[in-house]
Structures are given as structure tokens and as C-alpha cells.
Write a structure and sequence with these properties.
It contains five helices and two strands, in the order E-E-H-H-H-H-H. It is mainly α.
Length: 128
């Protein structure tokens, strides 16, 4: 992925995706160690879905910031959430995933964003 500029500063999309992968792997390993394999796979499913969500979000904002196509970005946002809702409902209604494990996997985005915010805060403190 390309480097985007947010407020005149470079933002590496790869850093965000790597951070999410690290958080998701940590959650998955903890689920494997402390819970059942079905629970761990449910955590993995939720984290994978949020990784996809994050990748589409980064691409969409990249399109908006580069002013390439706001209509395309808006359409991607609408379809992304529609697809996300359908996938979540289908997975939960068919008992393919453990509901709590799946929601734990979905929540991996929050620590990822917290970690990225912390790193950006540290970078701004150091370099201004």
C-alpha cells in the first residue's frame, strides 16, 4: 500500500495492517491457549473480518484524501458496511462461530487503533 499524507504527515497503511495482524495474532494465541479450538477459530474469524474492514477503510480514505473519486469511496463505504452486516448475521445465525469469540475477534480493531494512536503521539512528542 502507498504512503498517504494525513495533515501533511506520512501515514503508512502497512503499519496499521501490521499492527492489526499483531493484535489479532495475540488474541488468537490467547484463545488457543485458554479456550477451545472453536472459540479460537471464532476469534480468528472476527479478527480477519476486521482486518478486511481496516484495509478497505484505509483504501477508501486514501481515495478521498487523494481526491480521486469521492463517489467511488462513498459507494465502497456503503457496500462495505452492507457486506459486513450480512457476513456477521450469516455467521452468527448459522452457528458457524462462537458468538463471544467472534465478538472478541471483532474487537481487535480497538487495541490496534489505540496502539497506533499511542505510536503517533510518541512520534509527535519526539519529532514535533
Amino acid at each position: 500500500m502507498k504512503i498517504m499524507e494525513i495533515r501533511g504527515r506520512p501515514f503508512l497503511a502497512q503499519t496499521a495492517l501490521r499492527a492489526h495482524s499483531l493484535v489479532a495474532a495475540t488474541f488468537f494465541i490467547m484463545a488457543v491457549v485458554f479456550y477451545s479450538p472453536h472459540y479460537a477459530l471464532s476469534v480468528f474469524s472476527g479478527a480477519l473480518l476486521m482486518g478486511f474492514n481496516l484495509a478497505v477503510l484505509i483504501w477508501t480514505w486514501g481515495q478521498i484524501i487523494q481526491k480521486k473519486s469521492v463517489a467511488l469511496a462513498a459507494t465502497a463505504i456503503v457496500f462495505k458496511y452492507a457486506i459486513l452486516a450480512i457476513v456477521i448475521v450469516q455467521l452468527l445465525s448459522r452457528d458457524l462461530v462462537h458468538p463471544i469469540g467472534f465478538f472478541v475477534g471483532l474487537s481487535t480493531l480497538l487495541p490496534t487503533l489505540g496502539w497506533l494512536a499511542f505510536k503517533e503521539h510518541e512520534r509527535l512528542k519526539t519529532y514535533g
